Amino acid sequence: MRVVKEKTENEKQLEAEFLELLEGSFSYTPPERGEIRNAIILQIDPRGDIIVDLKAKQDGIVPSQDIDRLDPEFRAKLAVGESVPVYVMNPRDQDGNLIVSINQGLQQYDWEAAKALLDNEEVVEVVVTGHNRGGVLARWKRLEGFIPTSHLVTLGAGGNDRRDTLASLSSRMLGVKVIEVDQERRRLIFSEREAQKEWRQQQKARLLSELMEGDVVMGTVTGLRDFGAFVNLGGADGLIHVSELAWHRVDHPRDVLHIGDEIEVYVLSLDRDSNRIALSRKRLLPDPWSDAMNRYHEGQEVEGTVTNVVDFGAFIALDDGLEGLLHLSEMGDGTLKEPHSYIKKGDRLQLRISRLEPDKRRVGFTQRDSIGSAPVLDLETGLPVGEPAAAMPSDEPDAVDGPASIEGSEPPVAEAPSESTPVDEAPSA
């Protein structure tokens, strides 16, 4: 009679492991250079090397130099039994060792993230680490990528030499988009140009979500146009329409602002659908008409600046912004035929107040000795108030070239701009 001996649990486990190894030997593929595998830490050598098991016929060695490149916080967490990704650097060195890298293995996660960025076109920040003839090197997480010169927007402060210009970008942080990912060739290409438009839109959307109408914020003047001034509020521009620059008439924003000026602005309105930010400068300046009667009186001597010259006279702004008309008949001795040869825009004049009507936001000036008989003048036509339009001179104000005529209806700047200047007429920022 044959006696069958039962296998112990230990023998069963050893047999299962043997069968697993036997089956694995038929499908075994040796590690190849550039391959990334998951490995188990077997030993941390006091000299700094780490021994790992990556299911190969021999254990892998992670050199101490590679460990030194790891983030200190991550390096402190390494322990026997932990699973880590490793990059096969050399399947067999001169001593027959399998050399692997944890640092480059961890980059696998970053490559996968880079591929996701390529798909979703998200904007990220990179740090410039160097340059060559074709562009600049940039670090993103653990990866080093490249920004070709043709995809750079930010210009450095270097000299005329292209190399100096690229070198001046070192350590700068740039917003970029990923435009090419090739992990096998370790090729990662960024574009600042592609990111610029979306980056600005993101910054503007952020500002629009944080700002409220009525806020007062600091900004930097970035552009001057006929219709107004652009002000950067920290990543996005808002527009001050020319009518909101000052209480007096402003022919062009350069008359009161310069590019680079840092100014306080008042948030007039926010259009989150069209990403428009309308700003005002004059709302933060004192309204010169609010206490004009307390500071001025008829006959008072004042000094003002010519803001515009028209056929029937000149518009004068006092230093506090109060603006009125010096009629041709009140210039000099009153015998002038036309004002253009007598005064010009920007001149400083000594005057006297001939008429003061704060309720109508009107003031008239004179250079003549006697002001008692000065008529009340219509600031649009230059004629005495109540005189029929048929009596107007042939060179009508609406034929005058310049801001003295505004759509032929409202008086020119002798009346201060209305508090309700329509913001939606301002061009988009």
Topology:
Layout lengths: L8 H19 L8 E9 L5 E4 L6 E3 L1 H5 L3 H5 L6 E8 L7 E4 H19 L3 E9 L2 E6 L2 E6 L13 H6 L5 E10 L4 E5 H19 L5 E10 L2 E5 L4 E5 L20 E10 L4 E5 L11 H4 L5 E10 L2 E6 L4 E5 L20 E10 L4 E5 L63
Parallel strand pairs: 3-5, 13-15, 18-20
Antiparallel strand pairs: 1-2, 1-4, 2-3, 4-5, 6-7, 6-9, 7-8, 9-10, 11-12, 11-14, 12-13, 14-15, 16-17, 16-19, 17-18, 19-20
Walk me through what this model shows.
- The chain has 429 residues and is α+β, with helices and mostly antiparallel strands.
- The protein has four domains: 29-106, Nucleic acid-binding proteins (OB fold (Dihydrolipoamide Acetyltransferase, E2P)), CATH 2.40.50.140; 121-197, Nucleic acid-binding proteins (OB fold (Dihydrolipoamide Acetyltransferase, E2P)), CATH 2.40.50.140; 212-284, Beta Barrel (OB fold (Dihydrolipoamide Acetyltransferase, E2P)), CATH 2.40.50.140; 292-399, OB fold (Dihydrolipoamide Acetyltransferase, E2P).
- It is 18% helix and 31% strand.
- It is built from seven helices and 20 strands.
- It has helices at 9-27, 64-68, 72-76, 102-120, 162-167, 192-210, 292-295, and strands at 36-44, 50-53, 60-62, 83-90, 98-101, 124-132, 135-140, 143-148, 173-182, 187-191, 216-225, 228-232, 237-241, 262-271, 276-280, 301-310, 313-318, 323-327, 348-357, 362-366.
- Strands 1-2-3-5-4 form a five-stranded mixed barrel. It has a five-stranded antiparallel β-sheet with strand order 8-7-6-9-10. It has a five-stranded mixed beta barrel with strand order 11-12-13-15-14.
- It is rod-shaped and about 125 Å long.
